Amino acid sequence: MAIEQYMPDFAVERAYDVTLASLQKEKIKAVFVDLDNTLIAWNHPDGTPEMRQWLHELQYAGIRVVVVSNNSHERVKRAVEKFGVDYESRSMKPFTLGIDRAMKRFGINKNEVIMIGDQLMTDIRAAHRAGIRSVLVKPMVQSDAWETQFNRWRERRMLKKIEAKYGPINYQKEM
């Protein structure tokens, strides 16, 4: 297992630190974003005013935002319908199923999209497998839903390998 497959292209504190200007500079036309602990805290489904403003800015500028989540259709729909964003549920990350479906559904080319997520083992790995750029963010809350806890254990082990080879991941304030 090559650790490079888990290295993000960018690392920022929060999804909202991926600014409109940085997306335009990178010629990004679509943002795929994980749901739990990336867009919203898994235990706080209404999101924050800052998140709503970020979504509004991107959408107003014509950048498509698609939530790509491993959660069930019902869970993702309930979480994002109030934000007016598209979504792909049951994405099966770290596999590329959801990313591939979203790119095909919206006619998005690999070089025009970026995946934002809080997990190396699912979000970043899926982005690498799909051939798209990735942004790692810090989880919004330190607790996880029970389904995620095993991945966090595996992630800690992978982070130690990454740090041993490349040093610690340096989270920036923007891409």
TrEMBL record:
- Its Gene Ontology molecular function terms? phosphatidylglycerophosphatase activity
Return the InterPro entries for the record: HAD-like_sf, HAD-SF_hydro_IA, HAD-SF_hydro_IIIA, HAD_2, HAD_sf, PGPP1/Gep4
SUPFAM superfamilies reported for this sequence: HAD-like
Pfam families listed in its UniProt record: HAD_2
- GO CC annotations on file: cytoplasm
Q: What is this protein called?
A: YqeG family HAD IIIA-type phosphatase
